[in-house]
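Practice problem: predict the structure.
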Amino acid sequence: MASPAGATSPRANTFRASVKTVSFSGHYQGDASLLINNGAVTISSVTGKGKGTLVGASTISGKGSASSTAQCDPFTGTGIIAGAAAKLNLHVVESKSSGCSSGESGPVTVTFTGLAVVTGGSAKASGASGSLKFNGTLKLGGTSGSQNGSYTVALTGKLTVKG
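Answer:
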């Protein structure tokens, strides 16, 4: 049976969420708290402030873990970048991330690099997916026990968001 003139099929009215690819670039600095105990590293807190495309002025927070067996070791963790415009959920990929200490004792600088998978978001980052490469430095007073230090990090990548 034919549709009346001017009528649309039910499929024509189906809403499809559009997606777009956006570039992300962000820079953050803040503080990290770690417990280094017999080769196990617990990254109990990472907090910081900065700015990123898509999220604007924002905060970054997270936690994670690593095994400290050499001067360069893989690590993993979860985090959030949150601003007034959007929020991104992150998961650091252990097999693609590492932290390298400048020494085995005393004050050290840990240079870290890696890949964080974006596992969702909200507001302007609704349905976000993709990955962000990151690199930064962390200054610590020592290589064992409770350590607190300051860090800087840069993140870049391409994300897919609903929009």
